[in-house]
Amino acid sequence: MFRPEKDHTYLMPAHFGGNLFDTSYKASQRATMLSVSFETDRAELERYIPEELELRIPEVQVALNQLTEINWLGGGHYNLVMVSVPIRFNGKRDHVDAAYPLVVWENRTAPILTGREQTGVPKIFADIEDLHVYRPHYASSISYEGNTFLSMTFEEKSPVTGNDLERMKDQIRSLDLIGWRYIPKVGAPGADLSQFIYFPQWMELEKVHTGTGILHWTELSVMQNPRQHHIIKALSALPVKKKGQSILAEGQVILDTTQARVLT
Questions:
Q1: Which residue ranges make up each domain of the chain?
Q2: Which CATH class for the 27-262 domain?
Q3: Cα(175)–Cα(17) distance, rounded to whole angstroms?
């Protein structure tokens, strides 16, 4: 009969086997990242921040990542769009600053399942187009079953070079996340598991351009997107009080999955 091995890690269905837990392993991938940020109303944004967390700045970052050469997918690729905010976790033991993802849309099943099960990143499915590039213009759209709910555009202005590039490398290097791994009870309200997970990751930035980024949200009906329409409505309703930085960056992203840990 099947019995899990103590030094292995497993994903469902576990009975087909797992992998030896190797602390030296890191997931890596090439990334082209289009990031648009804006300042919003603190009270409105805090409606979506768990009470265990502290919102550091009422700023929202919407980042499209076009990922290729992924080692754990045998050189495969996928796209994601992450909406995140800067938070602080102040626990009995841990005091951590990181980004808290409000939602992450991805267009491939494997990273959705692993990210949700292992690190509590709130990943859900959407169709995410590769970037349309007609320099200096870039664009993508995110949709569900043919219904577009987010369009992103970017007009490239100038490359970042010299000392400014070195400063931006330091600024962008940390992409650490804090996920909320929430597993509902079976046949009853409430949670069987509710814990915050620190997930270290970083970007080895190679080149970056500044420019003008624009987000355009389109609310969907229950019929158009029955499981996500309320998420889209909430994000589209956040007021844009001040536009932040918009960049297009390229580099290598490293996910240190074996160093993820439960925060207390």
A1: 27-262
A2: mainly beta
A3: 31
